[in-house]
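A further point concerns the way the authors explain their paired sequence and structure data. Each protein is reduced to its one-letter sequence and a matching series of backbone shape codes. An entry of this sort, consisting of the sequence and the corresponding backbone structure tokens, reads as follows:
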Amino acid sequence: MSDNSNEFGAFMSGLLIGGIAGAITALLLAPQSGEETRKVIIDKSLEFKDKAIETVEDARQRAEKAAEEARRAAQEYSQKAQEQAKKLQEQGRVILEEQKQRIEKVTKGGKKAADKGAE
């Protein structure tokens, strides 16, 4: 996920810088007076600023959504892991009980055999 956000950030930076450079070049080469050019530069700068703010807000919302989805997935995984642990614990109890019963049978059989041999 880190690589994707770095690539997205690099793309957005390149897009913004390229757009600004292109706009400035177009304005400087356009046949206008200095005052008109400055006004256009200011207007375009404000426009780029607004677009940048909008892009940052959009990226923030997507990041929050991704974080919430990751949090929800982690909770689901944790719950499934706890359920699986409970199942395994119960299976362990059943196996332990079966083994105890087998040991008791063998022990009782051994005692009976020992008692018969002693008689």
